[in-house]
Design brief:
single chain; 2 domains; three-stranded antiparallel beta sheet; about 10% strand
């Protein structure tokens, strides 16, 4: 898979499932005595908080280098597992929640499919975090970096910021990538091997 498409896929999936986790938290997970308990109510806001944190983490990876993406990837995986566990363990109201909302300690009710959707989203979020950890080294960093060309010479690969600056100045940003830094020049030699502009020895 092409590296750029690979990164875009993992990032897009991470953003979508994390945002979906927030939506799922607001749905009714359990109905009883004419009242519908949402995922946010049942988990005391845990599912919503975990999904929003995962969403922010996926966004932050766009600004980080290899090790930064790996560290945040571990955190995203942990957040995804947290979403999964909370969705499983908090899909029905506790006695305290029943007393507080309905004034009874026990009443028959029925769960919905939403907490199980939360389980799936949590698992996918965890997988996205693992993807960041395992594939971070395959993706380019946002900062300027040095590479070697085919002849073994060092070259500067311009960052996205350099490209935007060049575009704003009316220059062609594609001239920056794979060449010397913008504004840099190389000395030219005459047939005798002398660099123009350098003083010659007086005989």
């Amino acid at each position: 898979m092409i590296r750029g498409h690979d990164r875009a896929l993992v990032t897009t999936v991470g953003l979508v499932v994390a945002a979906a986790g927030d939506v799922v938290a607001g749905q009714v997970w359990y109905r009883t005595a004419g009242h519908g308990f949402t995922g946010t109510e049942l988990s005391d806001g845990a599912v919503e908080a975990l999904s929003l944190a995962a969403l922010a983490g996926v966004g932050v990876t766009l600004l980080l280098g290899v090790w930064g993406r790996r560290v945040v990837g571990v955190l995203i995986a942990a957040l995804g597992l947290g979403m999964l566990l909370v969705s499983v363990l908090r899909r029905t109201p506790t006695t305290d929640q029943l007393v507080q909302v309905l004034g009874v300690r026990d009443t028959p009710g029925a769960g919905t499919a939403w907490p199980w959707i939360g389980v799936v989203l949590g698992a996918v979020t965890a997988a996205v975090g693992v993807g960041f950890v395992l594939r971070a080294h395959r993706w380019t960093s946002p900062s300027t970096r040095f590479d070697r060309d085919g002849n073994g010479r060092r070259r500067v690969v311009a960052s996205n910021l350099d490209a935007w600056k060049a575009l704003d100045a009316g220059d062609d940003p594609t001239d920056l990538d794979g060449n010397l830094a913008h504004g840099a020049s190389t000395p030219r030699h005459d047939p005798t091997g002398r660099v123009p502009g350098t003083p010659t020895q007086q005989e």
